[in-house]
Amino acid sequence: MINNKKILFQIEIDPKLQTKPFVNVTQISFYQSEDEILIMLGAFFHIDNIYLDDKANIWIACLSLADESNYRLKDTFAQM
User: Fold this and answer.
1) Cβ neighbours of residue 79 under 8 Å, at least 6 residues apart?
2) Greatest CA separation for the chain
3) Cα distance between residue 1 and residue 10, in whole Å
4) pTM tops 0.85
């Protein structure tokens, strides 16, 4: 028996940070009513919080795009 769960990723991006490239593609998206961002493959995220929204029966994962100057990730970014 498969026990699937729904999850929504809420990603916070500070455009002032030095990170992997990202771009807003809302204007060229098929779903123009949605805010849509493409993030370069290999980007790292901090997991800020994960919780279950009981009302909507969905897990919410709050992430933030990692800064390339983050001392814990410097070696990892250097290898990319």
Assistant:
1) none
2) 46
3) 29
4) no
